[in-house]
Specification:
Radius of gyration: 20 Å
Bound molecules: ligand DP6
Order of helices and strands: HEEEEEHEHHEEEHHHHEEHEE
Structural class: alpha+beta
Amino acid sequence: MNTFEKDLLDQAASYTHHLPEKKRGIVSWESPSNIAIVKYWGKYPGQIPASGSMSITLSKAVGRTSIAYHFAGSKKDGGLNFIFEGKQVPAFTKRIKKYLDAISHFLPWLTQSELTIRSENTFPHSSGIASSASAMSAIALGLCEIETQLYNKELTEYFFKKASFLARLGSGSASRSVYGKMAVWGSTTGFKNSCDEYAIPLDDIHENLLGIRDSILIIESGKKQVSSSLGHDLMKTNPYARMRFDVAEDNMQKLASIIRNGETARFMDIVENEALSLHAMMMTSNPGFILMKPNTIEAIHRIRDFRKDTGVQIGFTLDAGANVHVLYPEDQAMKTTAFIDTALKPLCENGAIIHDRMGGGPSKTDLLKD
Ligand code: DP6
């Protein structure tokens, strides 16, 4: 068994002899989405990533979650009311219920509690932005805070580690959203304390990369045709998978120094290599699939041409979808936003772009009401 998991189970066992001091309350967290620089694509059972990954935490694309709890002291099967953007969505409720069941051995008080979870995003669910990362990290943070209230504990470094661990079990990329700026998840030699169980924050980031911008071109706002879960699964039989995991490891090692030295051009090279490798894996899976649209490719060409013509250190990355994340340093924002407005906006569905940037990570927030 993994080390931290064992710690958490020991902690859970100690709670069985210890009744909560507080029985009712409400917590509320706002947690951001993140955009992966090195992609997590392929996993082993128990949400163990096949390679390390690294991401930039976003600022504006956030999810908010309030959890009202009542520790009833007796078994409460089905004691969950989940409301997403003011409505009950049975498919989401089912997913959250399954998640809570799966993590209840780490949070034994859950099985004796009634929860009302209200969740919403600041961006459209169908915009192709990773909503599971923000939603699952906000829920995990909320659950960890409930535990601190029940057992009178502080929000320490351990708190965030546990939140990242629990978020990972909900959605792998959510483990990284628990931290601001940049985070690494998955054991990799480039980052000494990295591990598969939870993400770690990156502190030593060069000023060239601090505050990096991410303008998200909404090429297509509909729901993606292939879920990440299926995509991860298809890596099990992808003949190039082993090589892909080695490339990801190599990119992680290179980034370890690039992030400290602030070599923006090399940073963008790796970012683009990762994006195209991710989509190459999709195309070489069986069945293969293509999530890029003609305007995705056109945007990539325009971005590269603009970089060549102007020397602006701009780059792109892609998620599991058609949308393009345009990355550029904060000090080149003026020139770049003018280019985005004239050359890239026409490629977006209804001209939709979300201008986001590196953010400070989750925070406690006001309660959500119906
Ligand atoms: C392409 O975290 O959505 O965004 O663990 O199955 O929920 P699950 O997958 P998910 O996969 C993210 C895939 C990615 C790359 C990344 O964020 O690293």
